[in-house]
Amino acid sequence: MTAAMLKSLVRLQSHFGNILSPGQLCRRSQQFRSALNYSSATEERKRFYQDVSISQGEGGYEINLDQRKLKTPGGKLFTVPNEALAIAVATEWDAQKDTLKFYTMHLSTLCNTALDNPTQRNKEQMISAALKFLETDTVCYRVDEPHGLVELQKNEWDPVLHWMENRYNVTIGSSSSILGPEIPEATKETFRQHLNSYSFWSLTGLEYVITQLKSVVLSMGMIDRHLTVEQAVLLSRLEEEFQIQHWGNVEWAHDYDMYELRARTAAGALFVHLTSESFTVKRKLMQN
């Protein structure tokens, strides 16, 4: 990993916070394992490579651990569509110390999901799943009581919801019914057309963000840079934060959960933007 590559990644990270940090290279040579299965959220493994680099192949950009090419858990060649994403993934691998903590490597995991497609879904199915999520969106579902939480939801969520409706010229609304609001078909069709402009890779990242925030509205607000990662996460946890203010919390557990949610959400948003790039990072920019 060259210094120029790391400088380029810093520019990419600036929109989403410091979710990746370049690690120092160690000088040990060990054999590469071709098919890494790190689906377990708690799995760790001893670092077995010395250098991390990227190279361009016929199918895109590849990640090299020493002289061996990285592969997905499904055995496919790990190939990403552009140089920017390759740099980000390579930095994740380079940042690992003596132990590989796969559960922190969110960009690598998202790439594996896009490449292996374990659920065997296509773009249309992913878009339909996102639209279904809109019907139970966190921002759209409101409580009747207590009064303090009712006002908090109105004051904090309504501005984002109104921005979303104005941005896409749609009607979404909110409801305190357990069934949530009834989303007009015209709104669904507008979002269906918009999401169809995303690549399969970008939809993979967007779906990941939606599942973290439990909200299409907050996810799109963040992807469109109307909300920061910190704002989107706090808004997604509005009820939890309200309860904590009244009843207290286990401080270390709360801080850990918040940190983890921010990291996953930031990684998902960064993944969407990196996979939406229609150009290759220019070498001269990397050398600045």
> Which whole number gives the mean pLDDT?
83
**Unreliable runs:** 1-41, 279-288
User: Can you summarize the main beta sheet?
Assistant: 4 strands, antiparallel
Helix content: 40-55%
Beta-strand share of residues: 5-15%
CATH class category label of the largest domain: Mainly Alpha
Would you mind describing this structure in some detail?
The chain has 288 residues and is of the alpha+beta class. It folds into two domains: 3-118 and 282-286, ATP12-like (2-Layer Sandwich); 123-248, Orthogonal Bundle (ATP12-like fold), CATH 1.10.3580. The protein is 52% helix and 8% strand. It contains twelve helices and six strands. It has helices at residues 3-13, 83-95, 106-116, 123-134, 147-168, 185-196, 200-213, 216-223, 229-236, 238-247, 251-276, 283-286, and strands at residues 44-46, 52-57, 60-65, 68-69, 79-80, 99-101. A hairpin with a 2-residue loop joins strand 2 and strand 3 (60-65). Helix 7 (200-213) crosses helix 8 (216-223). The model is unreliable at 1-41 and 279-288 (pLDDT under 50).
Summarize the structure.
Its main location: mitochondrion. It contains twelve helices and six strands.
Comma- or semicolon-separated keywords:
6 strands, 288 residues, disordered C terminus, four-stranded antiparallel β-sheet, two-stranded antiparallel ribbon, alpha+beta, ATP12-like
